[in-house]
Specification:
Blueprint: E1 13-16, E2 39-52, E3 56-65, E4 73-81, E5 86-90, E6 93-101, E7 107-118, H1 122-125, H2 151-158, H3 165-179, E8 181-182, H4 192-199, E9 201-202, H5 204-217, E10 222-229, E11 238-246, E12 250-254, H6 256-260, E13 273-277, E14 291-297, E15 300-313
Parallel strand pairs: 8-9
Antiparallel strand pairs: 1-14, 2-7, 2-15, 3-6, 3-14, 4-7, 5-6, 10-11, 10-13, 11-12
């Protein structure tokens, strides 16, 4: 996940977003061992502090919130303070919108969500019927940061071939996890083309962008996923991973960064992934991650923080 500051003034209108906290940094060699359990419950705290520098006609903040996803997660409870003016779904995501007219003083938005997670990985999906997705074409396109048509990306993709579709996915995953190095949090969005061709290193967003771009270059639908990781280091649960669609399994999640660090495997992930978004360039959020803030008037700054305040492994075992 990237930290971005953007001011675009048009008369008295501006768009500003600041992702103040660093994202997941799973650099510890002693990272907590991944649970083999099938289910998990987590409580997430999302906090946005809007700092005003003067008078504003309005401040509008839109943020992603968890939604129910079959065989992946069920939202048990969500509490908002203050209440949003609306909840809506678009692009397959769920959003909460907060609107403050003529605000006087700084704004504090707090969201607490309880989410039940179900293990969803290649090994758990192998015995289940593959769900059909009619929108897979959306996840084959060339787009910013997922430059599947870049000649260099295509050149790498042509060299990677498996005996069938899933074997090709495995080889793509192996290539990314071995060719790239983890370098900690990277503030700038770099994109798959630059990472694969020159940088050869990055954070979870970069690893995921590369795997998705290569899969799409092989005509295999793929998407990045933004969300939270329940087991994390440095108190920063934000994370990006990948889902790839195959005819035999449907949408299957993979984590190339943690795979490169030896903390997960190709076919097995524990139930620690809280899904927020499967859209890489989200126009609802002005193409940023997690949230967007718009206002009319004096500049504002948004500080965001996220925390898993409790995590309890449930009793269901393999």
């Amino acid at each position: 996940m990237k930290s971005v500051v953007k001011d675009s003034m048009r008369v008295a209108f501006a768009v500003c977003i600041t992702l103040a906290s660093a994202y997941l940094a799973p650099a510890r060699s002693e990272m907590i061992a991944r649970s083999a359990d099938n289910n998990n419950e987590v409580r997430i705290t999302m906090n946005y502090k809007v700092h005003l520098t003067g008078r504003n006609d309005y401040v509008r903040l839109v943020t992603l919130v968890p939604k129910n996803i079959s065989n992946k997660q069920k939202v048990l409870n969500v509490r908002y303070s203050p209440e949003p003016v609306r909840l809506f779904e678009e692009n397959g995501n769920r959003y909460a919108e907060f609107l403050f007219n003529d605000p006087r003083g700084d704004i504090d938005i707090l969201i607490n969500a309880d989410v039940a997670l179900q293990r969803s990985d290649l090994s758990s999906l192998a015995s289940a019927p593959a769900p059909k997705d009619t929108d897979c074409a959306l996840f084959l396109k060339d787009e910013p940061y997922l430059e599947k048509n870049c000649p260099e990306v295509m050149s790498v993709a042509r060299r990677i071939n498996g005996k069938d579709e899933m074997d090709t996915v495995r080889k793509l995953y192996d290539y990314v996890t071995h060719a790239l190095k983890y370098k900690g949090y990277v503030a700038e969005d770099v994109g798959a083309a630059r990472v694969l061709c020159s940088v050869k290193a990055g954070d979870c967003s970069d690893f995921s962008d590369c795997l998705v771009a290569l899969a799409r270059a092989k005509n295999i639908p793929a998407r990045t996923v933004d969300g939270f990781l329940a087991e994390y280091s440095d108190n920063n649960p934000r994370h990006t991973w990948v889902e790839i669609y195959t005819g035999g399994y449907g949408w299957v999640p993979f984590d190339p960064l943690l795979g490169s660090l030896g903390q997960v495997s190709f076919d097995r992930l524990s139930p620690e992934y809280v899904y927020l978004s499967g859209v890489r360039n989200d126009d609802v959020l002005d193409n940023y991650h997690f949230f967007a803030c718009r206002y009319a008037g004096s500049p504002v700054k948004v500080s965001d923080s996220y925390q898993i305040v409790s995590s309890a492994i449930m009793l269901t075992k393999n």
